[in-house]
């Protein structure tokens, strides 16, 4: 069993009373500066987190669930959060939402704040899949459910989408439409969705004996700007792709802006499929073909798993849900009529 420092441990190391440690932790004053510095040093050395006080005194439930997402601007996450909130209310819980802007440093700060606030559980799409800093939650006995991205260094319940199959279906459809020069705008390869969607792309090419062309593989970062710049890079190729597969919705938006900027005619000069449905998909002409995910369902399942962790006595095995995506063919995929 791992060592979980308590307020008594801090007091012993700092050679002060528990009451003095409590005064420093709660900013009540009345403690000499040198003593306070000694207590702070002991807290840092032990890795003590303030809400451990509450837990060591038989912590009460707060009926709150913390939600951590990497980018609230991403249209995917509001739908997932909506599913989380609705299911949480049905179970008698309220939610606290925080966005990290893909920063592991910010994520660690949020984790510590959630611990201090005494959340009963956390649902997270992590910015750092090693999970080293998320271990703070685990060590405090706070249940965790990972969504969209896996956590690698310790076991937690996980709800993912079959990214490999989703991207495979998209690229396969383009191949069956006669396309061989199919470009991909990738997400970060150190993330579950970025890596798995690239695997699906490669597998489809391999199954249909189409060589992988490194020039058609453009690395993006799941942000709109990278989709925009990637599309410009593809347009500048001597042998342009006849089809583009974008690995997420924000990069899709950037790609669409670039196509307009370049006067690269969507559905005529270049076919397109994006991963994740976006609001503009059916508003622009031609309508975008996409790989759609069950976003609300993903959030609802995450809450159910977390609720069981928080309320079921005894050890539960690690659980992983893999949800199926749906390929929605609209108007942006056309038969390849371009001679290459």
UniProtKB/TrEMBL annotation:
Pfam families, A to Z: LacI, Peripla_BP_1
Highest taxon listed in the record's lineage: Bacteria
Alphabetical list of SUPFAM superfamilies matching this protein: lambda repressor-like DNA-binding domains, Periplasmic binding protein-like I
Record-linked CDD domains: HTH_LacI, PBP1_LacI_sugar_binding-like
Nucleus found in the keyword field: no
Swiss-Prot/TrEMBL keywords: DNA-binding, Repressor, Transcription, Transcription regulation
MF-aspect GO terms: DNA-binding transcription factor activity; transcription cis-regulatory region binding
Keyword Transport belongs to the record: no
InterPro entries referenced in this protein's UniProt entry, alphabetically: HTH_LacI (IPR000843), Lambda_DNA-bd_dom_sf (IPR010982), Peripla_BP/Lac1_sug-bd_dom (IPR001761), Peripla_BP_I (IPR028082)
Domain HTH lacI-type: 5-59
Name the record gives this protein: LacI family DNA-binding transcriptional regulator
UniProt source species: Neobacillus novalis
């Amino acid at each position: 069993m791992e060592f979980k420092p308590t307020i008594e441990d801090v007091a012993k190391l700092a050679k002060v009373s528990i009451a003095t440690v409590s005064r420093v932790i709660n900013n009540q004053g009345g403690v000499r500066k040198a003593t306070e510095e000694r207590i702070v040093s002991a807290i840092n050395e032990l890795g003590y987190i303030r809400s451990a006080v509450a837990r060591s005194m038989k912590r009460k439930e707060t009926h709150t669930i913390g939600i951590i997402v990497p980018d609230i601007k991403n249209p995917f996450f509001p739908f997932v959060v909506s599913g989380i909130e609705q299911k949480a209310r049905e179970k008698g819980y309220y939610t606290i939402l925080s966005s990290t802007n893909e920063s592991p440093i910010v994520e660690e700060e949020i984790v510590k704040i959630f611990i201090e606030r005494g959340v009963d559980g956390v649902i997270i799409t992590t910015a750092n899949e090693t999970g080293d800093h998320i271990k703070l939650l685990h060590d405090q006995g706070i249940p965790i459910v990972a969504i969209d991205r896996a956590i690698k260094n310790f076991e937690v319940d996980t709800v993912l989408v079959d990214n490999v199959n989703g991207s495979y279906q998209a690229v396969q459809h383009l191949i069956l439409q006669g396309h061989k020069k199919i470009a991909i705008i990738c997400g970060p390869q150190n993330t579950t969705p970025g890596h798995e969607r690239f695997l699906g792309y490669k597998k489809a090419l391999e199954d249909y004996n189409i060589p992988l062309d490194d020039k058609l593989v453009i690395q993006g970062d799941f942000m709109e700007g990278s989709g925009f710049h990637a599309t410009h890079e593809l347009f500048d190729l001597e042998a342009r792709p006849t089809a583009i597969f974008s690995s997420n919705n924000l990069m899709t938006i950037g790609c669409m802006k670039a196509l307009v900027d370049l006067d690269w005619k969507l559905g005529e000069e270049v076919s397109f499929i994006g991963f994740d449905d976006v609001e503009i998909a059916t508003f622009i002409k031609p309508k975008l073909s996409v790989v759609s995910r069950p976003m609300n369902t993903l959030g609802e399942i995450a809450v159910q798993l977390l609720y069981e962790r928080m309320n079921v006595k005894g050890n539960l095995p690690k659980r992983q849900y893999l949800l199926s995506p749906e390929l929605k063919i609209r108007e942006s995929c056309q038969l390849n009529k371009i001679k290459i």
